[in-house]
Specification:
The chain is about 0% helix and about 20% strand. By secondary structure, the protein is mainly beta. The protein has no helices and three strands.
């Protein structure tokens, strides 16, 4: 299950049109997997099945100004 987003960590949220207040969770540590979506429906044409993922950082005043970056890896498995 996803971890709570604490200060000075990267987080993400999955948005849908019905979300009035998105829930932010921590990006898992490198090498840890987190399934964000599963579906059994096949999409052969058209727009398919879209998933919107937004990223952000929760910081406090102890973090110095600067440029910060991270890497996110997505893996898709077909059936």
């Amino acid at each position: 299950s996803p971890a709570v987003l604490v200060n000075n960590t990267w987080g993400f949220t999955l948005l849908s049109p019905s979300d009035s207040l998105p829930v932010w969770v921590a990006v898992p540590k490198f090498g840890s997997a987190l399934q964000i979506k599963a579906t059994s429906q096949a999409y052969e044409t058209g727009d398919g099945d879209k998933t919107v993922v937004q990223y952000g950082v929760k910081v406090d005043y102890s973090k110095p100004a600067g440029v910060y970056s991270n890497v996110v890896v997505y893996t898709v498995t077909g059936k």
